[in-house]
Amino acid sequence: MKSSNPIRRSVRRTLFTGFAALTSIGLAAPVIAQEEDLIEEVVVTGSRITNPNLDLASQTLVINEEELNLRQAIDAESLIGELPGIAPGISRSINNGSGGFASLNLRGLGTNRNLVLVDGQRIVPTNLSAVTDLNNIPVALVDRVDIITGGASSVYGADAVAGVANFVMKRDFQGVEFAGTYGRTGESDGRTLRYDLTMGGDLDGGKGNVAVNIGYQEVDGILQGQRPFSQTSFFGTTPLGSGTSVPTAFFGRQYDPATGGLVPDGDESTFNFAPFNYFQTPFERFNVFAKGHYEVADNVEVYSNALYSRNTVNLQLAPSGMFGDTWQVPLSNPFLTQDVRDLMCAEAGIDAATCAAAATATGGSDPNYLEVPTVVNRRLVEQGNRETEYLTNAFQITLGTRGDLTDNIGFDVFGQYGESDRSQTNNNWGLKSLLQQSLRATDAGTCDPAFGPAAGCVPVNLFGTGESISQGTVDFINRPSGTTVKTTLAALVATLNGEFELDFLPADLPVAWVAGYEYRRYEASQNADAAASTQDEVLGTGAPDPLFAGEFDVNEVFGELIVPLVTGRPGIESLTFESGLRISDYSTSGNATTWKTGFSYEPIGGWKVRTMFQEASRSPNIFELFNPPTTGLNNRPFDPCQGRVFVGTPQEADNPALSTPDVVAICTAQGAPAGRVVAGTGGIPRPSAGQINETQGGNTELGREAAASMKVGFVIAPDQVPGLAVTVDYYIIEIEDAITAPNPGDIFDPCFGSGSEGDAFANANPNSPGCQFIGRNPLNGSLNGGGDTPGIITQLTNQGFLEASGVDFRVTYDTDVAWGPVDGLFLDLTGNYTMDNKFQASPNSVNRECVGQYSQNCDPSLPEKSFNWRTTASMGDWGNASLLIRWQDGLVFEEGAAPPFGTDATTGAPNNPQFLSMDSETYFDLSYNKTFRDNIDLNFLIVNLTDEEPPITGNFIGATGFNAGNTYPANYDAIGRRYSLTLRYRFE
Q: Fewer CB within 10 Å, N or C, the chain?
């Protein structure tokens, strides 16, 4: 971990060195054409100062209304999720790992480190980590989207460490507009619908305006089984499903229905879970947004906006099961075969006579009755697919007044309140306590009354090929479960803004200032029924949803100052200084200070340089503070202790590299039974379905993060080339004392040796602190099981370090041409070059560089280079045609990590090298739009024109949420070519 002083000194040196260097070569930055369009708007993203004549030092990426219409986005996620420099967040491409909402992840620094705003105001968050659901944004009324990186914390709050995305609404909508969009894929699936009715009009001769939008959106699901490359789950070139399959496995030995015995060790079948998962999750949304303002006196107006959104997201997984948990199985269970009973007795160390006597017991009251703790794997296919529905109801209302107190001083005071209620309902998952009761049977039709009321209980038959569990048993164990997360936001913001002259400054523009007070209060709670809140009770889930609630409030005072130092002088067309300060008092973490300072310098018209430096202090959110520890899942296909570990006879081991005394000592110390670590007994099972248990939770001792960011850039819009604008901006964001949890590699590598596979085990270190954060199944030593198996323990701490740096660039050119039917051409190239994307969990962890890489430690993945290039041709009465080229650099498996598929025993080269990289990808989106009778717009769009398929890398190489369907569907297009048509009709 780096100390704060060296970081800040380094950033400051870079700031002033870069500023001096750029100034010395005369580069300057006028606001590009898209930014000049903002001068009529009150909302200027990146500042609360409303004077449009003053240039800001922060770069802003603007997505205007024309671009919004060309993309035919049905929601806000579609508008910004594919922009260069934005890492994948939760989206419709995330199935196993989705929370039923869509999120933004600027610079790959986490969805909790950026803000999503509407007209510069916060929106009630949707989850316990204060993340805003992009599904709640009213897209139809969006006039433009401003995205700003760094320099935003002092303006909007320290949780805007990575930046903000501000959705600016249309201010004075008039008339009535109806818009409808219909879309399908080239495979005739994945239907999308969007309908919007927008109405607005002026009040009292133009003193005010009211606009209302009513919208409906619907997206059909696309399963991985509907695409040929994802119908089977692969590990490298090997089809690899889940070890939880049918027939049933006891202690890793699978029942053989043909013989009534056991399948030979090593010949067990697996379950292909891939085709049941979604590539595109079904989605339905109904929303209402209203906005109005009215002038109640000269230069004084009241304003308000209100939103309501009802979103339904459906997820689906393969059938539930008994995923290696420990079950109490009576030796007298009527369905047990002799071979299985003998295996259970051998594992438990029960002698033959006792085992035989227990088999004859008539129930729990029989003195010979005996239960054996048994590790069972059985896919409950008779239940059907696991289904989860997320239903979110969110509303928010804002009421304020603004105006002028004097000719030079204005005010703005508003209050807002919002609530989000997100309910999760699980169906076809099954309950463990009921299934356990079904295992305690006296005969094939009767549950043992000695263990409680047996009303409705039907014994479960775990034998057979997937049809043996009766419908009666399914009806008994298959009960729905549910969780509700409720969040509220209450805020009050009051600002004064104004201008004054400083006669001693050689500037024609006044100094602008703003000062204000902001109060925010967040409350969040998680309530669940008894099943969902109990560890291991809902079969097939990751972690339970414990009941808890938390709250905090913050009082803040803030101010900004923009000082035009020089204007209209030779060699200094303009020189402007900008600064901001925010002092916060959190009820949970005390006082914090955030500040920014920056310059913009224009030596001659059309050339300007700008720079901004910021320090911020982010306080932990409710989830980070109060979430109780729970055991869930994380991706990892390989366990260093899996297989048989033989001391002294490595030639006989399943994995000879494991046959070292240090590894044996480590596995045993972590809770693996000695009999499974040493030769002669079944070995330790590999992770089921490529997943291991992970125990994590909040930490009430967390303190604040400290962030420093810097930007240096320029914009060129020369008068000699009308219509041309070029912007280039370098950014760096460093966060120390970051609230983070270790990745799997941060725990395994120090303990078992770098990479945790192959020859790396020669570096195993039983004394490594990482070894203490792994807990194994007490029966079979695996990293799977119920609450008795912690797996890896990833506690949140303030020991992390994050860094993101890179260069944003944009080139736009708008020109009149005369070439056949074309009379105008607009070119827009927007790109990003990511230099660093680093994460260090603790001072003892690797400072991992993840830019352009993927793995369980480096997801979500952020390509090194990416750009969007739009070319729009205006053709007069023939309409407009536009081609968008989306390109992203290739990705490689994490450098320095052990090859996930092992190495060749002779050459040492990685196996399946073709899956250790994913090529760059280019997508072409073609659209055509035409206006009829001045009030009817028709827009036809083809996305992924050439029907590019995603690169294939298998299903177990990365994190569960992002690595699915043998690819990375959040990074690459896994759906294929799709078409959509939008019709827009408007009248006064």
A: C
Q: Can you tell me the distance from the alpha carbon of 638 to that of 957, in angstroms, rounded to the nearest whole number? A: 10
Could you say which DSSP state residue 538 is in?
B
Q: Return d(Cα 702, Cα 739) in angstroms, integer.
A: 8
pTM summary value = 0.90
- Please provide the DSSP assignment of 782-807 as one string: -S-SSTT--EEE---EEEEEEEEEEE
Query: Is the confidence at residue 449, as pLDDT, over 80?
Result: yes
d(CA 977, CA 947): 5
Span 127-142, average pLDDT: 92
Residue identified by tokens 């938390």 is 550
Q: DSSP letter at 898?
A: P
Q: Residue 266: how many CB atoms within 10 A of its CB?
A: 6
Confidence of residue 267 (pLDDT cuts 50, 70, 90): confident
Residue 909 has a CB neighbour count (10 Å cut-off) of: 9
Give yes or no for residue 2 having a pLDDT over 80: no
User: 167, 137 in Cβ contact below 8 A?
Assistant: yes
Please calculate the CA angle 389-393-398 and round it to the nearest 5 degrees. 155
Q: What is the pLDDT averaged over residues 474-501?
A: 96
Q: What is the DSSP letter of 858?
A: S
Count of H-run helices and E-run strands, the chain = 13, 47
DSSP assignment letter at 31: P
Average pLDDT over residues 471-475: 96
At 578, the pLDDT band (50, 70, 90 cuts) reads very high
Q: Is 735 in contact with 798 (CB distance < 8 Å)?
A: no
Q: Where are the domains positioned within the chain?
A: 630-701+743-793
| Per-residue pLDDT tens digits for 856-867 | 899 899 999 999
> Which contacts (CB < 8 Å, 24+ apart) does range 400-407 have?
400/302, 400/303, 400/304, 401/296, 401/300, 401/301, 401/302, 401/303, 402/300, 402/301, 402/303, 403/297, 403/299, 403/300, 403/301, 404/299, 404/300, 405/496, 406/498
